[in-house]
Amino acid sequence: MSGRFEGRVCLITGSTGIAAAAAAALADEGARVFVASRTADHARDLAERIGAAWSEADLTQEGDVQSVVERCVETFGRIDCVYNVAGISARRLGDGALHEMTLDGWRAVMDANATSQFLVCRAAVRQMLDQEPDVNGRRGTILNMGSVTARHPVQQHFATHGYAASKGAIESLSRSIAVYYAPHGIRVNVIAPGLVATPMSERAQTDEEIMAFVTTKQPLAGGAIEPDALVGAALYLLSDDSRMVSGQVVTVDGGWSLG
């Protein structure tokens, strides 16, 4: 591997699917990785596999998020990169088409997706502002997890309007903080995938009608996108290769947004 992340400290939220693929790749490129997840078994297994540190945390809670950042800094001394992956699909909790969704479903998906990323970004930025910049004058990089559904919704199969709204909120938050903190040497971007083969999308992956639709909607993937296919874009946005890139949404959707 290239060693682009040699000596850099990378905090990743989530411990399966997209997060696990990125964590392994970052470790391979020399990063010191800290994994935070609400599922301790998954976080522990991932950390042991790639030689990372980890913490169990409910990222919708201020105290848990602050504890994660403090433990990461105590372990590694600073935070250079944050990849905010953790989130949910709240269909089973009441998300869906607007006329059918519940207030509980709306609150659940906004908390798990938008509020958690706000809290992690806030804690990470506070740490980055306090730490010395690197030799290039940069204090840190944040990559937040969006979704193609924020900009390119479809009528059939994926009518979870709360989920799309939460991902749109993440885009707006990321742009606004990218502008504000650029003079401080902090970059913020968003990666917006299509349907990825993760535990969160299991419902879709086991539905023949949905997968037939996805095969056409994501022709480059011929179905669901494998988590490894997002690694290249994510590591680019977290590395100095993208040092002049901030406030952008990079869509990795297998062609979803073209049709």
Question: Would you mind describing this structure in some detail?
Answer:
This protein has 259 residues and is of the alpha/beta class. The protein has one domain (9-196, 226-253): Rossmann fold (3-Layer(aba) Sandwich). It is 42% helix and 14% strand. It is built from 8 helices and 7 strands, in the order βαβαβαβαβαβαααβ. The chain has a 7-stranded parallel β-sheet, with helices on both faces. Helix 3 (62-76) runs parallel beside helix 4 and helix 4 packs parallel to helix 5.
Notable traits:
alpha/beta; globular; Rossmann fold; single chain; 259 residues
Topology:
Elements: E1 9-13, H1 17-28, E2 32-37, H2 40-50, E3 53-56, H3 62-76, E4 81-84, H4 103-130, E5 140-145, H5 161-181, E6 186-193, H6 202-205, H7 208-217, H8 231-238, E7 249-252
Parallel strand pairs: 1-2, 1-4, 2-3, 4-5, 5-6, 6-7
Helix pairs in contact: 3-4, 4-5
Strand runs, count: 7
Shape: globular
As residue ranges, the low-confidence spans are none
* Topology-level CATH name: Rossmann fold
CATH architecture: 3-Layer(aba) Sandwich
Question: What is Rg?
Answer: 17 Å
Q: What value does the average pLDDT take?
A: 95
Through-space gap between termini: 35 Å
Biggest sheet details: 7 strands, parallel
What is the C-level CATH assignment?
Alpha Beta
Report the structural category.
alpha/beta
Please name the fourth-level CATH homologous superfamily. Answer: NAD(P)-binding Rossmann-like Domain
Summed up:
By secondary structure, this protein is α/β, with parallel strands linked by helices. It has a single domain (9-196, 226-253), classed as Rossmann fold (3-Layer(aba) Sandwich). It contains eight helices and seven strands; from the N terminus they run E-H-E-H-E-H-E-H-E-H-E-H-H-H-E.
